[in-house]
Specification:
- This protein is mostly helical.
- The protein has one domain.
- It is about 75% helix and about 0% strand.
- It contains 6 helices and no strands.
- The protein has helices at about 5-30, 50-55, 65, 70-90, 95-125, 130-150.
- The two termini are about 20 Å apart.
Length: about 160
């Protein structure tokens, strides 16, 4: 592998690690997605009963709660994909790292935004007030991930 490809893979892996950690801190600790917790996202007063049941009681429980390594591995694969995507388009983007950081953040966030909208909102009737919390959580994770990717992959 060329030095540049090694840097891209390293950026993808580091970005994946940051993405996993930021998701644990937001969705896991603040959101209460772990079994036995309520948190911001699983309060019966504000959350759809369907969402709570899918995450907490209906078998089989989500793969993330039963075999988290599968989802975490998937996040690392997506992180590698985004690192290579970023490397392929960065020359066409503005030279300032801050501009590149926000562009990559937006790409990653819009992808997660779409799936949140089609999954929890559309299929599970999740309430909009909770969706906005999740959109902010995904923005935090997307920004942390993009920060790492754009800082590691730099033009010569």
């Amino acid at each position: 592998m060329k030095g540049n490809s090694i840097r891209v893979v390293s950026a993808g892996l580091a970005g994946g690690l940051v993405f996993c950690i930021s998701n644990f801190l937001t969705f896991g600790l603040l959101g209460g997605s772990r079994i036995g917790q309520t948190g911001l996202l699983f309060n019966p007063a504000t959350q759809s009963a369907k969402v709570i049941a899918v995450w907490k009681t209906i078998e089989p429980l989500p793969v993330l709660t039963q075999a988290p390594y599968i989802i975490l591995l998937g996040w690392f694969v997506f992180s590698l994909y985004y690192a290579f995507l970023y490397r392929s388009v960065m020359a066409a983007w503005p030279k300032k790292l801050f501009s590149r950081f926000w562009r990559l953040t937006l790409i990653v966030w819009v992808t997660t935004f779409f799936f949140e909208f089609m999954g929890p909102f559309n299929l599970l009737h999740e309430h909009l007030q909770v969706q906005w919390i999740e959109f902010v959580f995904w923005l935090i994770s997307s920004a942390a991930f993009s920060f790492v990717i754009t800082r590691i992959i730099k033009e010569k």
